[in-house]
UniProtKB/TrEMBL annotation:
PROSITE patterns: COMM. The lineage of its organism: Eukaryota, Metazoa, Ecdysozoa, Arthropoda, Hexapoda. Residues 123-197 form the COMM domain. It comes from the Eukaryota. This is COMM domain-containing protein.
Length: 206
């Protein structure tokens, strides 16, 4: 099968078609860096100066190249289908050879990442909690020990029937200080998930 890309994605890749092979190799390195670390504006600025174009064009080309590789992995294109898809986009045979090497090197890694994204992992369903305070004990008559007990309900889709779910209750107990720390870590993770890099990666895997 031939890979079908959107018009804007083809437009982003078109800047690479007229470039020499050594420039395309540099873009493959930028695409790999994008997959591993996210966008690199400084590198895009440097590349833009060398090619006398706007940095946005470089960024779009890198994202287009990442999308080409990810979509090829998603559809599990054979080497022959990938070759034909690249040639159909207007790349030369010399370009195709470079892109095919890049595809072969990253294919398994990206495929594994896509497989992990399709797992039906447990997710939040409900939470019940209560606040407890131990005012004193025989050993420590003036100690106050606050605790929060939580009943967390997780829901998981089962593989036995479409739409069927199973639920599991997890009992957790912690003190207020540790609970505040957990909340801060989760809020930081939530902010990271909304970052530009995370959104770009999520769009690449959709």
């Amino acid at each position: 099968m031939l890979l079908s890309l959107k018009d804007d994605q083809k437009q982003h890749l078109s800047v690479l078609i007229s470039q020499p092979t050594n420039v395309l190799q540099d873009f493959c390195k930028l695409a790999l860096d994008f997959l591993l670390k996210g966008p690199a504006p400084k590198l895009y600025q440097t590349a833009a100066q060398k090619l006398s174009v706007q940095p946005e064009i470089i960024r779009n080309a890198v994202e287009g190249l990442v999308n080409l590789i990810v979509e090829s992995c998603r559809h599990q294109l054979s080497d022959l289908d990938f070759r034909d898809s690249v040639l159909t986009l207007g790349f030369t045979e010399e370009h195709q050879e470079i892109l095919e090497v890049f595809y072969k090197e990253k294919k398994q890694e990206i495929h594994d990442a896509l497989s992990r994204l399709t797992l039906d992992l447990p997710h939040y369903y409900d939470l019940e909690w209560r606040f407890e305070v131990q005012l004193a004990s025989r050993a420590l008559q003036h100690q106050v020990t606050p605790l929060i007990t939580m009943n967390l309900t997780l829901e998981t889709k089962t593989a036995l029937a479409s739409g069927s779910t199973s639920r599991k209750n997890v009992i957790l107990q912690t003190d207020p200080t540790n609970l505040v720390h957990i909340a801060q870590v989760l809020e930081e993770a939530l902010r990271d998930s909304r970052s530009q890099h995370s959104r770009q990666i999520q769009r690449s895997f959709k």
